[in-house]
Amino acid sequence: MNSNAEMDFIKINLESESYKIFFGKDYIENSANYIREFTKTNKIAIITDENTANLYLNKISRSLLESKYEVIHIILKSGEKIKNISSVENVINTLLEKRFERDDLIIGLGGGVIGDLAGFIASIIHRGVNFINFPTTLLAQVDSSIGGKTGVNTKYGKNLIGSFKQPLAVFSDTSSLSTLPVREIKAGYSELVKHALIKDNELFMWLCENWNVIFNQEEEIIKAIKWSSNIKATLVQEDVRERGSRALLNLGHTYAHAIESLLKYDGTILHGEAVSVGIILAYKTSYLLGYSKKDELNKIIEHFNDVGLITDLRKFNKDNIDSDMLLNAMNNDKKVKSGQKTFIIPEGIGKAFISNKINDEIIKSIVDTALAS
Q1: Looking at CB atoms within 10 Å, which of 20, 74, 280, 290 has the fewest?
Q2: 62: which residues sit within 8 A by CB, 6+ positions away?
Q3: Are strands 105-110 and 130-135 parallel, antiparallel or unpaired?
Q4: What pLDDT is attached to residue 15?
Q5: Who contacts 259 (Cβ-Cβ below 8 Å, separation ≥6)?
């Protein structure tokens, strides 16, 4: 493997599970060269989805097989629908049938759904096996692959079954982004800009001027991904189990998860699209409460519109969702404490705080206005 000095990375410094996130090109095609230092096993299970398999499974497998690894392929259907406990059981049964052992390695190859699912399986099979993540979407590279959160959805809500499983390493292969539909890039951008909104006004201003480097796959895309990832990494290091400041990363997510839950993860809305709508609703909440100014709200809406992010809840309201339905769905959010909903309230751009004291009537007013306007 190339020395770390030759590679672009950030390090997640945790007490017992520190690891590096590498940024660059061709990690998938040369996977064996990079994972060798992290595992002594000869058996590797690659968990992926149909879309990713069509693009990258042969590439990653060829590298591993040429280096004499035994490779197990597990290919799932694509989309949020497969992120459930039934999929977990089916994958685990397949691995056990293949005599997958405690010292063997699971590789997650795909977007956020696959990373969450593969990481969760790695955390529970044999009470925990080694895991390396190869995120292939922008959303996964800047957000879901960082910090060890894994899990699956239930009929009651998103990520309500899960665990923390830190990987041995993450390889963010930016060459994989060139195959993504623009819709997926936009979905990932929502999470990238979210990090700027909660912690770094300078990054937000840079994105306002340079967001095209991401969509055009220009060289500075690594700068943007690394900058955003470093914000999340810092919050994870401060609060790995999300008992405090890490919860800031949920900006827009109380709204977003409720929307996704009501739409039953049917593919109508991508997670990042729900997040972009949720961020706008969070800023409208903040403005109503006096924590953000009108020009700040307008600046964010303007930027989201420039990029082509979705800001209008009505775009996905095919099932006649109303404010009461959203409020009820929020009651099942994993951030609920003592029956109180938790919201991340932005204070302008680059700062936010956590609150579980937002009155339901305020949320109802925000949603009703968004649905009517």
Answers
A1: 290
A2: none
A3: parallel
A4: 87
A5: 269, 274, 277, 278, 313, 316, 321, 326, 329
Task: Report the catalytic residues.
Answer: 127, 149, 191, 232, 242, 246, 250, 253, 257, 271
> Measured in Å, how far apart are the chain's first and last C-alpha atoms?
56
pLDDT in tens, 236-292: 999 999 999 999 999 999 999 999 999 989 888 999 999 999 999 999 999 999 999
pLDDT at position 3 is 44
Q: How many CA atoms lie within 13 A of 95 on its CB side?
A: 28
Report the candidate in 272, 232, 262, 236 with the shortest Cα–Cα distance to residue 333: 262
Q: Which two tokens stand for residue 201?
A: 């006004």
| 177 to 26, 52, 116, 295: CA distances (angstroms) | 11, 11, 19, 33
Question: Of 307, 273, 300, which Cα lies nearest the Cα of 285?
Answer: 300
List CB contacts of 16: < 8 A, sequence separation 6 or more.
none
CB 175 within 8 A of CB 200: no
How would you class 25 by CB atoms within 10 Å of its CB: exposed for 0-12, middle for 13-18, buried for 19 or more?
Answer: middle
Cβ 256 vs Cβ 187: under 8 Å: no
Asked whether the predicted pLDDT for residue 5 surpasses 50, the reply is no
Q: Is the dihedral of CA 104, 108, 114, 119 positive or negative?
A: positive
Provide the 3-class DSSP secondary structure of residue 123.
Answer: helix
Tell me the C-alpha distance between 322 and 267, whole Å: 20
Q: Which domains occur in the chain, in start order?
A: 4-179 (3.40.50.1970), 182-372 (1.20.1090.10)
Please write the tens of the pLDDT for every residue from 128-179.
999 999 999 999 999 999 999 999 999 999 999 999 999 999 999 999 999 9
* Mean pLDDT of the chain, nearest integer: 95
CA angle 107, 111, 117 (to 5 degrees): 55
Residue 1: per-residue pLDDT: 45
- Specify the pLDDT at position 6: 61
Q: Which amino acid, one-letter code, is at 295?
A: D
User: pTM of the entire structure?
Assistant: 0.95
Distances (CA, A) of 180 to 73, 100, 184, 217, 349: 22, 32, 6, 11, 29
Neighbours of 36 (CB within 10 A): 12
Neighbours of 154 (CB within 10 A): 15
